[in-house]
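Researcher: Please translate sequence to structure tokens.
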Amino acid sequence: MNKSIFAIVLLAILGLASGYLWADENSLSIKQKMLMPGPVISGHAEYETQCEQCHASFDKTKQTALCLDCHEDIAADREDNSGFHGKTGAASRDDCHTCHKDHKGRDADITGLFEGTFNHDATRFPLAGGHEGLACNTCHKDEKVKYRDTPSACVDCHKDDDIHNGATGDQCETCHVDKNWQSLKKFDHSTTDYPLKGAHEKVACASCHIAQQFEFETTTCFSCHMSADVHGGKNGTQCENCHSEKAWDEVDFDHSETEFPLFGKHQDIPCRACHKSGEEAADAPTECFGCHGNQDSHLGRNGKQCDTCHTSKKWNDIIFDHDRDTKYPLTGKHKNVSCTQCHIGAIDDPLPADCASCHKADDVHHNSEMKVCGMCHSTESWQATTLFDHDFTSFPLIGMHRIAPCQSCHLNNQFAGTDSVCGTCHTADDVHKGSQGNECSLCHTPNAWNPWQFNHNTQTEFILDGKHKDVACESCHKPNSQPKDTSKICGTCHQSQDIHGGEFGAQCDRCHSTSGFYELFILPGEKSL
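Model: Translation complete:
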């Protein structure tokens, strides 16, 4: 027998034998029984006798098209480049039988899916966040449901996790992200009837949506913040008239539209500093004393018109013009003293205008006759240079006297009757010990003790010439003697130098000149010795 014919016959016998094991002999034709390699999977069982559903006679290229005719969802994926069969390279272009081989029995798995290496990114539901680590059967629980038909909406899997109990609808992804339930993404509240601004942007959802309430009859400030109303309802329910959504303490109310515009420090103080709790806003005082009575250091003595002297910038900024509004202009140090230093009583109590009345404690002179302080002192300082002009007295100050302090001559702050004789003040400086009298100015000047101005030739009867010009005063004017008592006779001073032993008398100038004892001169008419 020809080998080819034998092989065909053998295959037919084997096919018939096997066919009897898995198919009703009446359901398959002889041809089918001879050519079918084995039973199809249970899903294709109803088409097992209809080979033409999957096969075209003598043309394998048409098999994929026949598959897609039945599997329309797969065909759509390929057409739209979506899903696993549209995104995955081989699955999107190769023939179906490349991966899916049938006729391996009713229970055969012809999908070829291996969960350990399957890339979920190629599906309509890429895994991200908390989904990445989940086991496949966490979502694909029902074996009767195809993988591709597994529900992908959040609520399909997480309905039991919905703490809102359906109050916010099924679109969980509107607020939540797939990382975890607690990681919320910013819900666009502007899509609602209440856009969030200011501090509202940062509050937790549950702060307003208590007990999962998302529908409100009213969205006014007062409906949420009634418990935070420090006014106790006194200012009405229109919170937005004063407050902003940025913060309660940032008030937008324009006080300039009231009868009391805010200036200076009033702009920085909180409302409740003037508008006390439980009081109507209109009841707040508008007079300074109404709020600042307890700060009145004058204790009411100066009346209640605080704004006459003070400004709203701060209490210490005084606007009262003492030079313009009083008869006592403030100069020098008076400009900086506080009002209460002079105005001990009420501001309108009469005050003395003389220096001594206020500065009695500062009077170092302690002289009741000296009350016109302004003759010597200025308002710049007690220690400032005296204004008193000594040139208008009987003793003008010149030389060293000009820089001497007043108390050098005016002892014990006594000014009237001060002696002007030099010796009275300069007794301790008198090297003559009183022998030359008290009229020091006859020889000395006020510039210093050393310079002296006495002219012996014009002020005495004894002209100094020759050697007499250079001798010191005390050579002739002995201590404890008066100048007028000094002898003019040569021998009185030159006795010790008289080599004649007094033989020619004491009138040495008859022979000698003042140029020297050894320079003799002969008077006219006398013979030379």
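Researcher: Any highlights?
Model: The mean pLDDT is 83.
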